[in-house]
Amino acid sequence: MSDDFGEDDVSVTFEHLKIEDEEPTEFFKTEVDHEDGRIVNSIENDNDGHADHVAVSSDSPAPTAAVANGLQSNKDPIKDLKIPKDERTTTPYMTKFERARILGTRAMQISMNAPVLVDLEGETDPLEIALKELREKKLPMIVRRYHADGCYEDWSCDELRQQDW
């Protein structure tokens, strides 16, 4: 026997792997249970015309369930999820990720001829102008911080404390 493998030693066939083009027979649907506002996921089998339901429900209502409930009860669901300014719990410090996102977004706006909110002293780089607006707390942006339950807090850029990175 030889240790090297030639082309005759190995053969691969793919006959057992056949891809058939079939229409899907099961369709995934998301429904809201109107009694308790939970999201119910179900699979409907469409082969024989009968519907087989498999319900999977979570223990806590999802944010979309809260939105769906708000739409049913004629409330504004967006205002229900917003945490009031005096009840905010997150830190008042701007993170480096928020800073990067804000500066990048504002620099893009300035490069697309958005009005500049500070006095220019020879700056032409949009990122430098955005940094100057951030230092002078004149950025017209709001940071939205989401909580795990779907609620959110809004912080304006002049409210957030900044560190030097």
Automatic annotation (TrEMBL):
Task: Give the subcellular location.
Answer: Nucleus
Q: Which GO terms describe its molecular function?
A: DNA binding; DNA-directed RNA polymerase activity
- Superkingdom: Eukaryota
Q: Which GO terms describe its cellular component?
A: RNA polymerase I complex; RNA polymerase II, core complex; RNA polymerase III complex
The annotated regions of Basic and acidic residues compositional bias extend over 76-89
List the InterPro entries: DNA-dir_RNA_polK_14-18kDa_CS (IPR020708), Pol_omega/Rpo6/RPB6 (IPR006110), RPB6 (IPR028363), RPB6/omega-like_sf (IPR036161), Rpo6/Rpb6 (IPR006111)
Tell me the Gene Ontology biological-process terms attached to this UniProt entry: transcription by RNA polymerase I; transcription by RNA polymerase II; tRNA transcription by RNA polymerase III
Segments of this protein annotated with the region Disordered:
57-89
Keyword list, A-Z: DNA-directed RNA polymerase, Nucleus, Transcription
Q: Which Pfam families match?
A: RNA_pol_Rpb6 (PF01192)
Q: Which Gene3D superfamilies match?
A: 3.90.940.10
- Quick check: keyword Secreted in the entry? no
What parts of the sequence cross the membrane? none
Family listed: Belongs to the archaeal Rpo6/eukaryotic RPB6 RNA polymerase subunit family.
HAMAP family reported for this sequence: RNApol_arch_Rpo6
According to UniProt, the name of this protein is: Probable DNA-directed RNA polymerase I, II, III 18kD subunit
